[in-house]
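chain below, 252 aa
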Amino acid sequence: MRLVTINGLSVQHGSHQALANVALTIDTGEIVTIVGPNGSGKSTLLRCIIGALKPDSGTILKAAGMRIGYVPQKLAIDATMPLTAARFLSLPKRRSAAEIQVALQQVGAEGLQNRPMAGLSGGQFQRVLLARALMDEPDLLILDEPTTGLDQPGSADLYRQIEQVRQDTGAAVLMVSHELHVVMSASDRVVCLNGHVCCHGTPEIVASAPEYRALFGTGTHGALALYRHEHDHHHHHDHDDAHDCGHDHGSH
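prediction:
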């Protein structure tokens, strides 16, 4: 089922054109990763989908009754505030201890209920944010650079967790990655954004697209790396979905 259909989305910040004629679709259960350099409009796009920002032109159609879970890029919590993970998960809506326990288990963060938020490691903190986003059983989970500040093993762990959540809940995942070259291998599609959609398709197709290489270079640092599972099971990617990666029609 189609959850989100975006057409002709444009956003102007003063004299800066943040997004120009962006089109994007998200279907139930798929993982879509957006990559792009700083200032390419990634967060602007997320804010439009969430409804926090009104685009200057274009349309965003959402499936009726669709619930969105959102994991922000940064969340500053005052270290002097005695806020436990359980208390945090009960904001703004009170949750039972059982609900909190289930949510933490779902993201691999068992036993953190009584730990202060300010004392959690980066990976634990992100998992608690993820747990909170999942508590309303979203159809679409939106993650804004969820691995910022995590080391590579921490990032790999979080990616695996997100993949597991998709498997367990069937929620679609829209993720903005700040690691241009490291995209979760479970991504069904990668969208390369630089104010407009430069190219999109399966990770393998985007990695070889000239537009992607022009933006990020072709050396080892420019190559699109995938976090692969050791057992590398295939998710039956439909290669027909890789639209026009070699051409920029500006309409995608």
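The radius of gyration is 18 Å. Residues 152-169 form the longest helix (18 residues).
thats it, cya
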